[in-house]
Protein: Heat shock protein Hsp20
Amino acid sequence: MAWGRRYRSIFEWFDEVFRSIEEEIAALERELMELVRSGRAEVRGPYIYGFRIVIGPDGKPIIEEFGNIKRRYGRTEILEEREPLVDVFEDEDKITVIAELPGVDKDKIKVRIKDNKLIIRASNGQKYYKEVELPAKVKPETAKARYKNGVLEVVIEKEKPKKVVEEIEEGHEVKVE
Structure:
């Protein structure tokens, strides 16, 4: 679905997006029911699937999925770990990540920063797992995490880029004759 080519308005685009999502959910339901009827799957729960639509920095809509139902390699998988809904906010000097982790005790949450990704893992009855690609380089040692009422907030300072002038001045100076 390329925005702007065949749509007269954003409302037509949203209408098609929602129609395609409804079709995908119906296909998932049919596939799940067939697996249960055939005995190849057992009914366990909860099954969680959701999505949100955000406008990206380039002005184009982005559809983000969350939950524990994933489509991989042409098949539907129900994962043990649920993917929480996450928001990432970038300020001039810091990045803030907000994740919904309802029903988890604070001491059951593990947060790591590795290769410019924030990794969230939690387990307290319901299991959560999410890798968040950070939009800028960060200083992992400055990260602070706070959890209250089912919401995890992680704030990390951004790495300050060296200015071109500083990089030039750091090298060995050669006298011009």
About this structure: Residues 1-80 form one domain. The longest strand covers residues 61-72. The mean pLDDT is 82. The two ends are 62 Å apart (CA to CA).
